[in-house]
Amino acid sequence: MDGIELRELVPRVLSVLVRRGADFATAEDAVQEALIKALSAWEREAPADPTGWLVTVAWRSFLDMTRSATARRDREVRFDAEPPAGAVPSVDDTLGLYFLCAHPDLSSSSAVALTLRAVGGLTTRQIAQAYLVPEATMAQRISRAKRTVSEAGVEGPGDVRTVMRILYLVFNEGYSGDIDLAAEAIRLTRQLAATLDDPEVQGLLALMLLHHARRRSRTRADGSIVPLAEQDRDQWDTELIAEGIDIAQAALARDQLGQYQAQAAIAALHADATRVEETDWVQIVEWYDELLRFADTPIVRLNRAVAVGEADGAPAGLAALTEIDGDVLRRDAVAAYLHERNGDLELAARLYAVAARNAPNLAERDHQTRQAARLNELLQRR
Amino acid sequence: MAKYLLLKHYRGAPAPKNDIPMGEWKPAEVDAHIKFMNDFAEQLERNGEFVDAQALSPDGVWVRYDGEGKAPVTDGPFAETKDLIAGWMVIDVDSHDRALELAAQLSAAPGANGEPIHEWLEVRPFMNERPNVTD
Q1: Is residue A104 within 8 Å of residue A12, measured between CB atoms?
Q2: Cα(B80)–Cα(A240) distance, rounded to whole angstroms?
Q3: Which of A89, A139, A249, B25 has the fewest Cβ atoms surrounding its Cβ within 10 A?
């Protein structure tokens, strides 16, 4: 049994404890303790009933924690050593955990941390490393988040849109440490899709799979960016693409469009083109128009302008760009690209330099700097 | 989820409102200031927003390469007119507004006469990792 299989048991074990009457915050600590014990105890051989093992150990931890807490408060022990029988967790319990961890009262970073720990089964140290903060800070963030959700409580079904936003954040933002956060986000979204029948969740899963499939080709060995048009499409993971397209199509067929399905449709159209020249830019623009109905953001408009530039030519793309404010992130980069396509190399070179200065990360800054250098060299040779 | 650097300057920042040098404060005022700084860092940690805090000695030198096989060339200490960093805090917060809010709280550290210093702090965002979805 590997770490991921072990972590898959976490929501179930946690649900058992909560069903037995344990409070969420303490139960979650107890499960984490059992998990850490399992990681060393199971190194040679996993027990015959891993879930049962974890439940027993976690329940014992829970009792210890409760006893020491109650002893401090000089109160009688509230729980019997022998747990009540029955209490088999259902699919709904796991879903309830997702809702709880993405509680609307939590900040995004707290919801992300709590989801990765209570649903994902990652340790505090692993989460701290993934987000480059000290372990003590992450421990505080998680216990604070647990206090918040315990006080707020859960009444009725949670908001699946919040859950999806948090999973998308896990997929999109994090550092490449020991834990592959993108893969973890996919695992958690798969689990969510298996417990909740919602075309938007399917759309989100498809979107992640389709982007993940292109991952190897997005970056060179030295960390530099390879733009979509220049990617080696032989490196794309065709299995993931096929799966992503299937899931996206099944979701779209249900005729309940949402922003993740629209984004998945766009990703599918890119993934479907075996050569960049075969990209169906006209359809991609149409999907961006759909996407705008659900998420009219400057980023969507910016990406739409790129697509319009490919579908109808650079002048049309530049016209689409005029509706976007000058201070929108990556606008200079898009403007530089479209002006280059339009043949105005001097302006494009200047804009690439501006884009480099405003880049939100090192990889993009280096990429835009190289673009500026490439055009300047070209202009000098003339 | 973004990291910000809160930079405190020995020199180079605009003059604060309560601009009396620390050496001229009463001992209790110095204690109150130091306590405020420690409490602030502790509060950040309890919030789950703390990443790092460091103070720097003012004794810096400029160093540069001087060619193959040669010793590094040094220059300094800094001329009086130069910007001089006193220390920093690194925070991990949910938004730019939150970073500004925390910097303003830090700037309220008590100085002479127990009044807030209103010190100017520089807030600088970190470069992020490249996100998975950009195209």
Answers
A1: no
A2: 61
A3: A249
Domains of chain B (ranges plus CATH)? Answer: 2-125 (3.30.70.1060)
Is there a contact between A113 and B128 if contact means CB atoms under 8 Å apart?
Answer: no
Are the C-beta atoms of residues B111 and B117 closer than 8 Å to each other? yes
B31-63 pLDDT tens trace = 999 999 999 999 999 999 999 999 998 888 889
- ipTM for the predicted complex: 0.86
Report phi then psi at B83, rounded to 5. -65, 135
Q: Does B97 touch chain A (CB under 8 A)?
A: no
Q: Measuring CA to CA, how many Å separate B133 from each of A102, A258, A266? A: 21, 18, 12
Would you give the end-to-end CA distance of chain B in angstroms? 21
Condensed to tens digits (0 to 9), the pLDDT of residues A198-254 reads 999 999 999 999 999 999 999 999 989 999 999 999 999 999 999 999 999 999 999
Judging contacts by C-beta atoms under 8 Å, the chain B residues touching residue A108 are: 1, 94
* Residue A174 near residue A131 (C-beta atoms within 8 A): yes
